[in-house]
């Protein structure tokens, strides 16, 4: 088996941040409404601005992350390594794939274009 790479997808990154923006906008507006603020609409502006700044700031790091899987392990950014024989669970979380080891370590492979395919590939290799 050769090396397989799991790279971050720009469309998945933008889609995830759009959902975060919608959540931030709704939450900020609800909080202002509960507090009795007459300018509830400012919560939408603040929530959107916060996620745009966050997304712009993190894009260069998140979109360059590459995870590689060979016949023995998955290697990720920052020197993270997961032995395939130590994987106990792999699950999809939106555009993320969570890999859980037998000793409870958790790793996120973020912004996958097809997270179901990533899960299937890891499960096949770990079997």
TrEMBL record:
<keyword id="KW-1133">Transmembrane helix</keyword>
<feature type="transmembrane region" description="Helical">
    <location>
        <begin position="40"/>
        <end position="59"/>
    </location>
</feature>
<keyword id="KW-0472">Membrane</keyword>
<feature type="transmembrane region" description="Helical">
    <location>
        <begin position="12"/>
        <end position="34"/>
    </location>
</feature>
<keyword id="KW-0812">Transmembrane</keyword>
<protein>
    <recommendedName>
        <fullName>PH domain-containing protein</fullName>
    </recommendedName>
</protein>
């Amino acid at each position: 088996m050769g090396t397989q790479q799991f790279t971050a997808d720009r469309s998945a990154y933008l889609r995830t941040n759009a959902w975060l923006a919608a959540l931030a906008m709704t939450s900020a507006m609800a909080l202002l409404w509960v507090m009795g603020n007459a300018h509830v609409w400012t919560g939408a502006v603040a929530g959107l601005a916060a996620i745009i700044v966050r997304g712009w700031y993190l894009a260069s790091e998140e979109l360059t992350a590459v995870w590689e899987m060979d016949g023995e392990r998955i290697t990720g950014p920052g020197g993270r390594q997961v032995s395939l024989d130590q994987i106990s669970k792999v699950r999809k979380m939106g555009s993320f794939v969570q890999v859980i080891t037998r000793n409870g370590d958790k790793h996120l492979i973020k912004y996958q274009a097809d997270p179901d395919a990533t899960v299937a590939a890891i499960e096949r290799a770990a079997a």
